[in-house]
# Entry
Amino acid sequence: MCVTGLVLARSGSKSIRNKNMVLLDNKPLLLRCLEVMQEAKCFSSIWVSTDDDKIAECAKDGGAEVHYRAQYTAVDKASSLCAVQEFLQHHPDISVVCLVQCTSPFIRAGYLHEGMDKMQSGYDCVFSVTRRHLLRWSEGEPTYPLNFNARQRPRRQDWDGDLYENGMFYICKARLIHEGLLQGGRCGYIEIPHCDSLEVDSPLDVIIAQSWLTYCQQENGSQHP
# Structure
């Protein structure tokens, strides 16, 4: 089974300029991600799909191979699925893709191992989720509760909460991607603790991520929370 780790890292970003290259502890998010993927040692190859020479250089510094993606996959409206499909057109030998989001700065090698273990036990796709204890309401007025009974509002300690995709990674058989799916067939998930689930998508997220790293280093000397 040819298992490839893939990071999509285009140059454009409306929320943060050059988001994939934002520095945490003076290290680009992309490089942090690639180091964890290398540490996991569960991929036949690791690739970065990009449209930018500086990102490509960073990818090579992290030991990854570079795929220069087609321009139609690097525009704001292009989906991740579209970019993965375009990548696989050039690499038909790949049977499983692990799509890793480099803007999830607290990914761990162990999470990737857990996901690959599930894939080897018969799943068609495995992805990362986070448990949230949020009371959801419908849009529009009058509004009504969607995931709880207003007459019996649950206490946090009495409620398991809901599982949400956090985007950290998606492991998927290539045949599903060819069918236009990142998730399908027998689906499994890896539950990621809330403290590791931050996604860097705004300047505030960068501040929070750096503050959390600094706090953890001060508390236990760890480079990682």
